[in-house]
Design goal:
globular, 46% helix, mainly alpha, signal, 3-stranded antiparallel sheet, single chain
């Protein structure tokens, strides 16, 4: 399953789960402390907004637990989660400006708590951003991209690299040399 299909699946699970929990609401709160979850090493930085490795790890774990408890069978990778977390503030702001229903951080925390899933800041912000991302029109998504055109974006090589035209890209770490195969048997 591709990253885009996995993200579409989680969007459906999140929208269904939050709606069934009776917790859908509007939220005007922006992430206040992403970058503080241990380990605090940056996974990515967008201008002065940092997402820590810990944020990505906790959000990936919580999101996959959420999907499983909603009956889903797909799983998200850390790259899937980071690709959304990096731009959560812009996604949430654009969605709010467009009048889309954006769940508050408190709403998501309550929904996760009811399912006995850790509600770290990274998990809450990922779920908030991803739950509205798939509702956004192509024009709204283009607006997010345009807002980020001049942003200073850096990504920890552990997660790949960022290309403004393609987004977050997996990459072969340059410190791992390719292994050459010897074709001769017994040599």
């Amino acid at each position: 399953m591709t990253g885009r299909n996995r993200l579409a699946t989680i969007s459906l699970a999140l929208a269904t789960g939050l709606g069934l929990a009776g917790c859908a609401g509007a939220g005007g709160d922006r992430p206040e402390s992403l970058g503080q979850t241990s380990p605090r090493e940056p996974a990515a930085t967008v201008d002065d907004f940092t997402v820590s490795v810990g944020d990505v790890q906790s959000a990936t774990k919580a999101s996959n637990e959420f999907i499983a408890k909603q009956g889903g069978q797909s799983t998200l990778t850390t790259s899937d989660v980071l690709g959304t977390l990096m731009f959560a503030p812009q996604i949430l702001e654009t969605a709010q400006d467009a009048g889309l229903s954006v769940p508050s951080a408190k709403t998501v925390q309550q929904a996760l708590g009811q399912l006995e899933i850790d509600s770290s800041v990274g998990a809450v912000e990922f779920i908030r951003a991803q739950s509205v991302r798939e509702q956004m029109s192509p024009e709204q998504l283009a607006s997010v991209s345009e807002e980020l055109d001049d942003a200073d974006i850096s990504v920890n090589p552990r997660y790949g690299s960022f290309d403004p035209a393609k987004g977050l890209q997996d990459s072969q770490p340059d410190w791992l040399a390719p292994v050459e195969q010897d074709d001769a048997p017994g040599s």
